[in-house]
Prior knowledge:
Elements: E1 2-8, E2 11-16, E3 26-35, H1 38-45, E4 60-68, H2 72-76, E5 85-88, E6 91-92, H3 98-101, E7 112-113, E8 125-129, E9 133-135, H4 142-145, H5 148-161, E10 168-172, H6 176-187, E11 192-196, H7 200-208, E12 213-215, H8 218-224, E13 229-234, H9 239-246, E14 249-257, H10 271-276, E15 280-283, H11 291-299, H12 305-308, E16 309-314, H13 318-326, E17 332-336
Helix pairs in contact: 5-6, 5-11
Amino acid sequence: MRAVIIDTPGTIRVGSVPDPTPGPEELVIKVGACGICGTDLHIADGEFPPTPYPIIPGHEFAGEVVAVGTRVPEMMGETFTIGTRVAVDPSLFCGHCAFCHVGKGNLCENWNAIGDTVNGAFAEYVAVPAANAYPIPERVSYREAALIEPVSCAVHGIHRLQPSLGDSMLIVGAGTMGLLLLQLALRGGASRVAVLDLNTERLALAKRLGAYQTANNLIDILALEPSGFDCVIDATGVPPAIESALQAVKRGGKFMIFGVAPSEARVALSPFRIYNDEITIVGSMAVLHSYQQAVDLVSRGAIDTSVMLTEAFPLEDFSKALDRVRRGEGLKTQILPNGEL
C-alpha cells in the first residue's frame, strides 16, 4: 500500500509499505479521510517526544472495515463486519498502570496512540484494535467522521473545565480546536463566548458560529468584560498568549491550558494573583471517556462540520497539505488516501 513515511524528523516521503493484516483482536480499515493537526507538525519536526522513527503518522481518521481479526466476532458479535463504517479513537492505554487502574488512561504511564507512537492513517490502510472502533451512520461522511477525534478532545476539555450554566467565556485561538470548543461551550450553556485570534478569517468563522465578540487583541476584549471572564481557555499553546490570557480570568474564575506547547516552554505567572483571586488552573490532555459522546454530537449534527472542513488532498500531496497547515491557511485540512469513498 501507499503511505506517508516520516523516516526521521524533517524527512517525509510517500512510499510503498506492506499492507497491514489484523491481529486476533484487530480490524483493518480502508482509510476514508484523515485530518492533519498540530501534533502532526510536531511529529514531522521531531518535537513530539514519544514518537519513534520511522513512523506513518495520522490519528484523526475514519474509514471502512476490510478485514476482521479472528477473535473479534466472539468479543463483539456482529458489531464489525466487512464494510462497516467506523471512526477510530487512536488512544492506546496499557490498562495495568496506576493511572489506568483509576480510570485516567490518558495519563497512562505506557501511553501510546495510533499515528503518534505506532503506524497511523496517512495510508491507504491501517490496523486498529477493534475496541477502539466506533460504528458511524451512513449519513455521516468520512470527512465529517474524521473530525470526531478532535471533537472528543474538546469534549474532554469541557469535562475538565466544568463550566457552570451562564458562565462567560473567552477562547484564545480560533483554530480547529478553538472553534470546536466554542460550539460546545455555547451548547453547554455559556451565556456568552468571546474569541481572540490574529487571523481575521478565522474570527469571521467564530462570529458565524455564535461568538458574541471577536478581536485580535486582549484590550478590546476586556473593554467589554472589564471584570474578566468566568472561564478562559488557551487553545494556542503559545507561551506569550498563555501569559496574556491569564489576565482575562475573573476573580474566582478558571483557566484551562488546552493548546499544546513545546515541552521546554515556560510561562511567567503571578502566584499571588492565583492565590488571592482563587483562580483555578487546569490542563486537558487528549481523549478520555469522550469518544462516544463525540460520535453522537457529530452524528446528530450538533457540530457544524461545514465550517470546520476546508481543503482535502490526495496522499501524494501530503507535504503540500502539511505546509498549508503550517502556514495557518484554511482550518481542518484532510488527506483522502483512497480518494473520495
